[in-house]
Amino acid sequence: MTFVERPSDAEILAALPELASFGREAVLLNPARGHPGVRDSSIGGPLLWPADEPWPVCSEPDEEEPSGVPAVAMVPVAQIYARDVPGPWWPAGMDLLQVLWCPNEHWDAPANQADVSPIVELRWRQVADVDEHLVGPPHPVRHYEFGYLPEPCMFTTKRLIDFPYREELPVDLQPRLRRLIEETDDEGKDTITRLSGWSWEAGPPGTCHSRRRSPARRAEW
User: For residues 77, 79, 85 and 90, what is the CA-based torsion angle, rounded to 10 degrees?
Assistant: First the structure.
Protein backbone atom coordinates (compact mmCIF):
# COMPACT_ATOMS: atom_id res chain seq x y z
CA MET A 1 0.00 0.00 0.00
CA THR A 2 1.28 3.45 -0.90
CA PHE A 3 1.48 5.98 1.90
CA VAL A 4 -0.44 9.15 1.11
CA GLU A 5 0.01 12.27 3.23
CA ARG A 6 -3.21 14.04 4.09
CA PRO A 7 -3.77 17.47 2.54
CA SER A 8 -2.61 20.45 4.59
CA ASP A 9 -5.05 22.31 6.83
CA ALA A 10 -5.04 25.19 4.34
CA GLU A 11 -5.83 22.87 1.41
CA ILE A 12 -8.69 21.19 3.27
CA LEU A 13 -10.27 24.48 4.33
CA ALA A 14 -9.79 25.98 0.87
CA ALA A 15 -11.78 23.09 -0.59
CA LEU A 16 -14.39 23.05 2.21
CA PRO A 17 -14.33 26.35 4.14
CA GLU A 18 -17.47 25.28 6.02
CA LEU A 19 -15.33 22.81 7.98
CA ALA A 20 -13.54 25.64 9.80
CA SER A 21 -16.05 25.82 12.64
CA PHE A 22 -15.65 22.07 13.32
CA GLY A 23 -11.84 22.06 13.52
CA ARG A 24 -9.99 21.27 16.74
CA GLU A 25 -6.30 21.62 17.45
CA ALA A 26 -4.53 18.27 17.69
CA VAL A 27 -1.10 16.68 17.46
CA LEU A 28 -0.18 13.51 15.57
CA LEU A 29 2.38 11.30 17.28
CA ASN A 30 4.38 9.72 14.47
CA PRO A 31 6.35 6.62 15.57
CA ALA A 32 10.14 6.85 15.34
CA ARG A 33 12.74 4.20 16.09
CA GLY A 34 14.39 4.47 19.47
CA HIS A 35 14.78 2.90 22.89
CA PRO A 36 12.57 4.91 25.26
CA GLY A 37 13.06 4.99 29.00
CA VAL A 38 10.69 6.05 31.78
CA ARG A 39 11.81 9.68 31.42
CA ASP A 40 10.95 9.75 27.71
CA SER A 41 7.73 10.35 25.84
CA SER A 42 6.97 7.19 23.90
CA ILE A 43 4.49 4.87 22.27
CA GLY A 44 4.44 1.50 24.01
CA GLY A 45 7.49 2.33 26.15
CA PRO A 46 8.03 2.00 29.91
CA LEU A 47 6.06 4.30 32.20
CA LEU A 48 7.17 6.53 35.04
CA TRP A 49 4.80 4.64 37.35
CA PRO A 50 4.93 5.21 41.12
CA ALA A 51 6.38 2.16 42.88
CA ASP A 52 3.69 2.32 45.58
CA GLU A 53 0.72 2.59 43.20
CA PRO A 54 -1.08 -0.62 42.10
CA TRP A 55 -0.75 -1.44 38.41
CA PRO A 56 -4.18 -1.30 36.70
CA VAL A 57 -5.87 -4.53 35.66
CA CYS A 58 -8.99 -5.34 33.65
CA SER A 59 -11.55 -7.91 34.77
CA GLU A 60 -14.18 -7.10 32.13
CA PRO A 61 -15.35 -9.99 29.89
CA ASP A 62 -13.32 -10.12 26.69
CA GLU A 63 -13.25 -12.05 23.43
CA GLU A 64 -10.65 -14.52 24.75
CA GLU A 65 -12.29 -15.11 28.15
CA PRO A 66 -16.00 -14.28 28.61
CA SER A 67 -15.67 -14.49 32.40
CA GLY A 68 -12.90 -11.87 32.50
CA VAL A 69 -11.01 -14.13 34.94
CA PRO A 70 -8.18 -13.97 35.72
CA ALA A 71 -7.86 -10.20 35.49
CA VAL A 72 -5.50 -8.93 32.79
CA ALA A 73 -2.68 -6.50 33.51
CA MET A 74 -3.03 -3.45 31.29
CA VAL A 75 -0.17 -2.54 28.95
CA PRO A 76 1.42 0.85 28.19
CA VAL A 77 0.16 2.48 25.02
CA ALA A 78 1.65 5.96 25.32
CA GLN A 79 3.51 8.21 27.72
CA ILE A 80 3.47 11.91 26.91
CA TYR A 81 5.39 14.61 28.73
CA ALA A 82 3.96 18.13 28.49
CA ARG A 83 7.40 19.46 27.56
CA ASP A 84 7.26 17.40 24.35
CA VAL A 85 3.64 18.08 23.37
CA PRO A 86 2.59 21.40 24.91
CA GLY A 87 -0.95 22.58 24.34
CA PRO A 88 -4.26 23.63 25.87
CA TRP A 89 -5.30 20.06 26.64
CA TRP A 90 -3.18 19.75 29.80
CA PRO A 91 -5.09 19.98 33.11
CA ALA A 92 -3.75 22.61 35.48
CA GLY A 93 -0.63 21.41 37.27
CA MET A 94 -0.28 18.18 35.26
CA ASP A 95 2.79 17.55 33.10
CA LEU A 96 2.57 13.83 32.31
CA LEU A 97 -0.11 11.74 30.60
CA GLN A 98 0.00 7.95 30.64
CA VAL A 99 -2.30 5.82 28.50
CA LEU A 100 -2.78 2.10 29.14
CA TRP A 101 -5.26 -0.43 27.84
CA CYS A 102 -6.39 -3.99 28.27
CA PRO A 103 -4.95 -5.79 25.21
CA ASN A 104 -8.21 -7.58 24.44
CA GLU A 105 -11.36 -6.74 22.51
CA HIS A 106 -14.49 -6.20 24.59
CA TRP A 107 -17.80 -6.64 22.83
CA ASP A 108 -19.88 -5.24 25.69
CA ALA A 109 -17.59 -2.59 27.17
CA PRO A 110 -18.53 -0.23 30.04
CA ALA A 111 -20.52 2.86 29.12
CA ASN A 112 -17.51 5.16 28.99
CA GLN A 113 -15.53 2.86 26.66
CA ALA A 114 -15.75 1.98 22.96
CA ASP A 115 -17.24 -1.39 22.01
CA VAL A 116 -15.11 -4.00 20.23
CA SER A 117 -11.98 -2.25 21.44
CA PRO A 118 -9.46 -2.37 24.29
CA ILE A 119 -10.56 -0.81 27.58
CA VAL A 120 -8.50 2.34 28.11
CA GLU A 121 -7.10 3.82 31.31
CA LEU A 122 -5.70 7.37 31.53
CA ARG A 123 -3.46 8.72 34.28
CA TRP A 124 -2.55 12.41 34.54
CA ARG A 125 0.41 13.12 36.82
CA GLN A 126 2.87 15.63 38.14
CA VAL A 127 6.33 14.27 37.45
CA ALA A 128 7.66 15.79 40.67
CA ASP A 129 5.26 13.59 42.67
CA VAL A 130 6.93 10.35 41.50
CA ASP A 131 9.78 9.73 43.94
CA GLU A 132 10.44 6.09 43.02
CA HIS A 133 9.19 4.36 39.88
CA LEU A 134 8.04 0.79 39.36
CA VAL A 135 10.53 -1.57 37.73
CA GLY A 136 9.18 -4.57 35.82
CA PRO A 137 5.38 -4.10 35.61
CA PRO A 138 3.24 -7.26 35.30
CA HIS A 139 2.58 -8.87 31.92
CA PRO A 140 -0.95 -9.66 30.64
CA VAL A 141 -2.03 -13.28 31.08
CA ARG A 142 -3.80 -13.16 27.71
CA HIS A 143 -4.11 -10.76 24.81
CA TYR A 144 -5.74 -10.37 21.44
CA GLU A 145 -3.47 -11.80 18.77
CA PHE A 146 -3.08 -8.70 16.62
CA GLY A 147 -2.00 -5.17 17.31
CA TYR A 148 -2.69 -4.60 21.01
CA LEU A 149 0.84 -5.03 22.37
CA PRO A 150 2.53 -1.86 21.07
CA GLU A 151 6.18 -2.03 20.10
CA PRO A 152 8.20 0.49 22.15
CA CYS A 153 8.96 3.55 20.03
CA MET A 154 9.86 7.17 20.35
CA PHE A 155 7.77 9.65 18.36
CA THR A 156 7.90 12.91 16.48
CA THR A 157 4.99 15.33 16.45
CA LYS A 158 2.96 17.12 13.81
CA ARG A 159 0.35 19.74 14.67
CA LEU A 160 -2.81 19.90 12.62
CA ILE A 161 -6.52 20.63 12.70
CA ASP A 162 -8.67 17.58 13.40
CA PHE A 163 -12.23 17.18 12.12
CA PRO A 164 -15.08 14.85 13.16
CA TYR A 165 -16.31 11.78 11.35
CA ARG A 166 -18.04 12.54 8.09
CA GLU A 167 -21.32 11.18 9.49
CA GLU A 168 -21.22 13.71 12.33
CA LEU A 169 -21.13 16.69 9.98
CA PRO A 170 -24.17 18.47 8.48
CA VAL A 171 -25.81 16.38 5.77
CA ASP A 172 -25.17 18.96 3.05
CA LEU A 173 -21.39 18.75 3.67
CA GLN A 174 -21.12 14.98 3.57
CA PRO A 175 -21.20 14.38 -0.25
CA ARG A 176 -18.59 17.10 -0.87
CA LEU A 177 -16.37 15.72 1.86
CA ARG A 178 -16.73 12.21 0.46
CA ARG A 179 -15.52 13.43 -2.93
CA LEU A 180 -12.55 15.16 -1.33
CA ILE A 181 -11.66 12.01 0.60
CA GLU A 182 -11.88 9.89 -2.56
CA GLU A 183 -9.44 12.21 -4.28
CA THR A 184 -6.83 11.86 -1.52
CA ASP A 185 -7.46 8.48 0.12
CA ASP A 186 -5.39 5.38 -0.71
CA GLU A 187 -8.01 3.09 0.90
CA GLY A 188 -5.53 2.32 3.68
CA LYS A 189 -6.31 1.67 7.32
CA ASP A 190 -5.54 4.36 9.87
CA THR A 191 -2.88 3.42 12.40
CA ILE A 192 -2.31 6.88 13.79
CA THR A 193 -1.85 8.03 17.34
CA ARG A 194 -3.24 11.46 18.16
CA LEU A 195 -3.50 13.76 21.16
CA SER A 196 -6.63 15.89 21.53
CA GLY A 197 -8.96 16.66 18.61
CA TRP A 198 -12.16 14.68 18.16
CA SER A 199 -12.81 11.42 19.99
CA TRP A 200 -12.71 8.09 18.18
CA GLU A 201 -12.66 4.37 18.92
CA ALA A 202 -9.54 2.72 20.26
CA GLY A 203 -7.49 0.71 17.79
CA PRO A 204 -3.87 -0.35 17.35
CA PRO A 205 -1.51 2.64 17.54
CA GLY A 206 1.09 3.31 14.90
CA THR A 207 4.32 1.34 15.24
CA CYS A 208 7.92 1.76 14.18
CA HIS A 209 7.39 -0.75 11.39
CA SER A 210 3.96 0.40 10.25
CA ARG A 211 3.30 4.04 9.59
CA ARG A 212 0.23 3.67 7.44
CA ARG A 213 -2.08 6.62 7.59
CA SER A 214 -5.11 7.30 5.43
CA PRO A 215 -5.59 11.06 5.15
CA ALA A 216 -9.30 11.02 5.77
CA ARG A 217 -10.72 7.76 6.96
CA ARG A 218 -12.91 9.99 9.08
CA ALA A 219 -12.86 13.58 8.20
CA GLU A 220 -10.21 12.79 10.55
CA TRP A 221 -8.39 14.75 9.39
Answer: 100
